[in-house]
Amino acid sequence: MQQQNMGTEYGQGIMQQPPQIISSKDSLYLTDMLSWNLLAMKKSHFYATQCQDQEIKAAMERCGQMHQQHYERILGHLNQQNQQSTGMQQ
pTM score, two decimals? Predict the structure, then answer.
C-alpha cells in the first residue's frame, strides 16, 4: 500500500517553520514526550546496572544515552522557542 502525506492530501502542505505559539494540546504532548524519554533513560540505566553480560550492559547504556539526547533535544527546542517568544514581547 502506498503511503500518502496527509498534510498535502487536505491542502495544508508542509510547515516550513514551527508556529510561534504552542497550543495546550501540543504542550501536553511535549510534556508526555519528555516524561517518556526520562523514564526510558532511567530504566535503561537501572537495567544496565543489573546486567552481568558486558555486551548487554553496553547496549542498555547506549539506549539510555539515546533517550537522554532526545530529552535534551526536546528541551533545547523548547528553550529556543521560549527565548524567541520572550524576545518578541520585549
Answer: 0.69
